[in-house]
Amino acid sequence: MIFETQQNEKVEIVIHRHWAAIINLFAFVFLMAILPIFLFFIMQNYLLISVGAMNLFIIGSSIYYMFVINMLFIGWLDYYLDSAVITNERIIDIDQNGLFNRTVSELHYSKIQDATGMQKGIIQSFLDFGDVQVQSAGTQKEFILDKVPHPYKLAKLIIDLQQQELNKLRTENPQGAKIDESDGV
Amino acid sequence: MILAWFIFFVFVTVFGIVGSIGVMHGKKYKIENDLTDLAIKLYIFFMISIVIFTIVLVILNGPNAKIELPILKSLK
Predict the structure, then answer these.
(1) Cβ of A49 under 8 Å from any chain B Cβ?
(2) Which residues on chain A are in Cβ contact (under 8 Å) with B52?
């Protein structure tokens, strides 16, 4: 695990971005992959190639394919490591940008004011993915879980978990649990 | 041909280093029971397969074959 759960904390769901977020990369890689094959057929049909030249073409194509596979692997890691973990106590948002740029943010339910699911456009509506915007009290930054599957269900889950956490806090603290609007000062 | 092989293995080394960084990163930041392990295995498999395939194909073709510029079939 990339983070440690606290006592009595249970992971409810781990969310990765919807596959539609990476379809562009796969389409681009596919087009790049068929290019040497296309060139090979043109060479076979229209050019007289020596064995030595064909060996050079094989070596060049191999270098090209290694580049394409590396690009696909790094791009997939960038997509897949971008995730959100929802536990019974907090939301952890992990933003991966490239290999060396990573941001991990967490938001406790006591600081959440609202969670909204959003879908924009025909593709998001058809494939049922979109953004979940979580608004927090205080000056903590707003969480946006982008391009996640089933955004409305996810927003409802967050609200339900927040209610459970607030009820638990009220039980533990009869003075009354409320949304924590402090800035920690 | 020796130059071509040298360039080939330089690129294998470079891509190997980049890929290793990606593999270490993936193993470090993966969440349990996700697809990262499968992706890493597929990546290593394809990279090794390309290197082996290239070496075998060139050896089968004739590694010391003379390199000549290609010409259009219609001009012959």
Answers:
(1) yes
(2) none
